[in-house]
Amino acid sequence: MDFLKKYYTDMGIAAETFDMCSEIEESLKARFDEIDKIAEYNQIKVVSAMQKNRLAEDHLYGSTGYGYTDTGRDTLEKIYADVFHTEDALVRPQITCGTHALSTALHGNLRPGDEMLSIAGLVYDTLQGVIGIRPEIGSLAEFGIKYNQVDLLPDGGWDFDGIEEALKNDKIRLVEIQRSKGYATRPSLSIDAIEAAISFVKSRRPDVIVMVDNCYGEFVETREPSDVGADMVVGSLIKNPGGGLAPIGGYICGTHDCIERAAARLTTPGLGKEVGASLGVTRQMTQGFFLAPTVTAAAVKGAIFASAVFEKLGFKAIPASDEKRADIIESVILGSRELLIAFCEGIQEAAPVDSYVKPVPWDMPGYDSEVIMAAGAFVSGASIELSADAPLREPYAVFFQGGLTYAHAKLGIIKAADNVIKARKS
């Protein structure tokens, strides 16, 4: 252990910080064993889907041009559909990010005069522009599609009375559930909680589409939202399911009808899923999906370790270190601009790429306040890699996620903790 401690102290980390974190890590071994079992289950699920669909070497080469008869692309979509237990899937490099995937699913499945209902409160910042809560060109609002929401109860539970009342509006066509907390400090939503909500919605309005924003939640549990009644689950390939290898892309898994409509929106009516060249990234997308269960497990371990360390330092962590995990995100309420920046600088200093630069708050497109982002990633913006970000506003909560390996996540957390300790003393 002494040789390991020397490496950390050579990187400028105080010996006392390393000792404290080592004691905390030792206390988490049983939790980490549980996470490894979930990863093993999900790994077998992915391999089984690949074998069932006869994944072959020639599927990995990709296509150009129109992408007609791209068997690798089509096979990967069948694999996704099998893993998520859905009728169909759309998995494409032409989907640029998670917000684009959500926008494609919404624009594809809503029509003028329809309304969508969010039942987990206000949606994530970037989706607000898609909907038109914040005016943007091409928003749903411009097409005459309205938005309504029901907030979660103060304890983070569902407001079933409010949902029932909202569903009396027969214009509601789609119910959206955001699994992860986004930049809120509410709890993320477990599959059990999502199951209860979907069951309630479908018992009142079986005709509505239920879409779950699954970003950051894939492979954290043994079930996905589509296993408990979601008509569509949507996410980004530079988060959990890309396994750190996918250089771009997003997915939508769901019913045939929902996917057909989304595909018509992504490409063009009449062509849908038939076009869309994979441009040589099928190998990374497929191998990344293979690695995703174990990469996600590393990120979950890092999140638990982070919560335990910062609780020890007297900060509030959401979720708490002993709580069940619903996604890979850990939020720490630091209480000041200075400590938040110190945390993010620590994450950046632990990065394999651009470790020598300092993250600076800036007016990032799609957000209503300055945002600071720390990420020295191999794939730009990939939040399955070690990263931290936060809006510069009260209560100055930082959002930490990722780590392709647990060892790297651990390094980043210890470095961030050491920076915060030193900043608090200064």
Please give the structural blueprint.
Blueprint: H1 2-10, H2 15-26, H3 29-52, H4 71-83, E1 88-92, H5 98-109, E2 115-118, H6 125-131, E3 146-149, H7 160-166, E4 172-178, H8 191-204, E5 209-213, E6 232-236, E7 250-254, H9 256-266, H10 282-312, E8 316-318, E9 330-333, H11 337-349, E10 371-374, E11 387-391, E12 397-401, H12 406-425
Parallel strand pairs: 2-3, 2-4, 4-5, 5-6
Antiparallel strand pairs: 1-7, 6-7, 8-9, 9-12, 10-11, 11-12
Helix pairs in contact: 3-4, 3-10, 5-9, 10-12, 11-12
The CATH architecture designation of the largest domain is: 3-Layer(aba) Sandwich
Compute the number of structural domains: 2
Give the helices and strands as they follow along the chain: HHHHEHEHEHEHEEEHHEEHEEEH
**CATH superfamily label of the largest domain:** Type I PLP-dependent aspartate aminotransferase-like (Major domain)
Number of strands: 12
Coarse morphology: globular
| CATH class annotation of the largest domain | Alpha Beta
Spatial order of the strands forming the largest sheet: 1-7-6-5-4-2-3
Fraction of residues in helices? 40-55%
CATH topology of the largest domain: Aspartate Aminotransferase, domain 2
Q: Determine the mean pLDDT.
A: 96
Q: What's the gyration radius in Å?
A: 21 Å
Q: Biggest β-sheet, characterized?
A: 7 strands, mixed
Q: Count the helices. How many?
A: 12
Poorly predicted ranges (pLDDT <50, ≥5 residues)?
A: none
Distance between the termini: 30 Å
Give a verbal description of the structure.
The chain is built from twelve helices and twelve strands. With 426 residues, the chain is of the alpha/beta class. It has two domains: 2-42 and 290-425, Alpha-Beta Complex (Aspartate Aminotransferase, domain 1), CATH 3.90.1150.60; 58-281, 3-Layer(aba) Sandwich (Aspartate Aminotransferase, domain 2). A seven-stranded mixed β-sheet has the order 1-7-6-5-4-2-3, with helices on both faces. Helix 3 (29-52) packs antiparallel against helix 10, helix 5 (98-109) crosses helix 9 (256-266) and helix 10 packs parallel to helix 12.
